[in-house]
């Protein structure tokens, strides 16, 4: 029996689901091992009978929390899809300000108070609301990694993400380190798996795949001192995908 799979989205650009839609011929391999029963971006049918839920996006409202908890109850396995779901991503930047300040900035004096759609709280990643069984990081996700993780979940295995930094992939690609070119980069503290796509294309890493568990802040500070990069510049990079109110 193929496990039944459903896709859901919360606050997001839906770019991660689009990566799945764009799997093209590889999607046929996946259809051999799972049965997709709900996927708003790709099909009209919907079913609440599913085994694996892929959830994209961040949680911003009480109504989102309720819906996510229902999805959690229905699913045997819940997978966070993309940076917004795994770590809050760019949506967490909003948490720099109070909810009232953000509503005022966006809607001015429009009457949004009391409307359930505008009843928002500071942005949360999925694991701040429910238990998450597996993560597919990145903004957007990597299609090959998605295929590998789906295969491993469908076979009842726990998917594993790389536990080494982006710098390892960057060195394998024989790139010149962007610090040498006067830029900054979060490669030393960010989980690999994207084949260091940004540094390989001449841009510093912004940490969209989230930080390694063993966040070596002191080693990162040594690199900054060596290349004379200010903490302010780095904090802008840190905050883009990994904003924390209390800092690092
Ligand atoms: S992680 Fe990035 S690509 Fe995916 S939904 Fe969020 S903003 Fe879009
Ligand atoms: S460019 Fe970034 S990822 Fe590559 S080696 Fe330098 S710090 Fe590491
Ligand atoms: S290099 Fe960094 S920012 Fe770019 S895709 Fe990889 S983890 Fe994300």
Describe the structure.
- The protein has 248 residues and is α/β, with parallel strands linked by helices.
- Helices cover 35% and strands 9% of the residues.
- It folds into 2 domains: 4-154, NADH:ubiquinone oxidoreductase-like, 20kDa subunit (Rossmann fold), CATH 3.40.50; 166-242, no CATH class.
- It has helices at residues 15-21, 26-33, 62-74, 83-87, 99-107, 143-154, 166-172, 197-200, 217-227, 231-242; strands at residues 4-9, 35-38, 52-56, 77-81, 134-136.
- A 5-stranded parallel sheet has the order 2-1-3-4-5.
- α2 runs parallel beside α6.
- Residues 12-16, 56, 82-84, 89-90, 139-140 line the site of one iron/sulfur cluster.
Bound ligand species: iron/sulfur cluster
- Report the CATH architecture of the largest domain: 3-Layer(aba) Sandwich
Number of strands: 5
Beta fraction of the residues? 5-15%
Which CATH C-level class of the largest domain is it? Alpha Beta
State the helicity in percent bands. 25-40%
Total helices: the number is: 10
For the record, give the distance between the C-alpha atoms at the N and C termini, rounded to a whole number: 46 Å
Characterize the overall form. globular
